[in-house]
Amino acid sequence: MAAGRTILDWAQSAMQPDPHGEPALGGAYEISTLYLDTPGFDVYHRARELKGTKLRLRRYGTGALAYLERKQRRGDRVRKRRSSVPEPETARLGTAPAGEWAGAWFHEEIAARGFRPVCALTYLRTAFFGSADHGTFRLTLDRDIRAARAYGWGIPRSAGGILIAEDVVVCELKFRSAMPQPLKQLVARAGLSPSALSKYRRACLAIGLIEAGKDTHA
After folding, report:
1. Most C-beta atoms within 10 A of its C-beta, which of 3, 80, 117, 140?
2. Which domain holds residue 40?
3. What is the arithmetic mean of pLDDT over 176-202?
4. For the domain that residue 179 is a member of, what is the CATH number?
5. How far apart are CA 99 and CA 146, in angstroms?
6. Is residue 218 part of a domain?
7. 106: closest CA among 82, 89, 124?
8. What is the pLDDT of residues 55-69, one digit of tens each?
9. What pLDDT, in 10s, does the model give residues 68-101?
10. Domain membership flag for residue 59
11. What are phi and psi of 32, to 5 degrees?
């Protein structure tokens, strides 16, 4: 937590706060995410044929929109595609949507491999942005990460459930190409080093969707 305090102090002095932060939450905002997986938990097991792809539904704060996201990670690079729909329309993902719909592409992704909701996460995010030698960049700090099993296509207002990362602050540095100089300074000051942490995988273990020690395909 000491490193988290160092990072937060630096960001507050060197970057701009995310305008979506809520004063009542100390400048943070809540993120609620519904993670999808196949019946064989191919996402959890990092099945090669998925090529690092995750599918999820996300809501920010108490907003009325749900964001349908495909996230694909290759090494340290991340690509995303997403569309927004009114949150009640997420129920359409459990049927066969008719006609033109912003979430049609996402439904096709689900149908291709039988994805269904398995896990709901909520956490508080404090975010900052800036610009420097290599363009714009962001810094996010996630805390109070909680998980519960998912039932249905709605994004829970609060996951409640189990605190899966006690006394842990997850820091992500996001930039387009080479790391900007200000972030290099932060890494040196706080003594940061890369560490792999998947909120989804940790949640699956914490809520008993996956038995500990059985985290790879046989």
Report:
1. 117
2. 2-206
3. 88
4. 3.20.100.30
5. 37
6. no
7. 82
8. 999 999 988 999 999
9. 999 998 877 788 999 999 999 999 999 877 678 9
10. yes
11. -120, 130
Report if residue 212 sits inside a domain.
no
Nearby residues of 142 by Cβ (< 8 Å), 6 or more positions away: 31, 123, 124, 125, 169, 170, 171, 172, 199
- pTM of the predicted model, to two decimals? 0.89
pLDDT in tens, 134-148: 789 999 999 999 999
Q: Using 50, 70 and 90 to split pLDDT, how confident is the model at 214?
A: low
How far apart are alpha carbons 35 and 33 in whole angstroms? 6
Three-state SS for the chain is CHHHHHHHHHHHHHCEECCCCEHHHCCEEEEEEEEEECCCCCCCCCCHHHCCEEEEEEEECCCCEEEEEEEEEECCEEEEEEEEEEHHHHHHHHCCCCCCCCCHHHHHHHHHHCCEEEEEEEEEEEEEEEEECCEEEEEEEEEEEEEEECCCCCCCCCCCCEECCCCCCEEEEEECCCCCHHHHHHHHHHCCCCCCCCHHHHHHHHCCCCCCCCCCCC
pLDDT of 218 strictly over 50: no
Give the pLDDT band of residue 216 (cuts 50, 70, 90).
low
**211 located within any domain:** no
What's the number of domains the chain is made of? Answer: 1
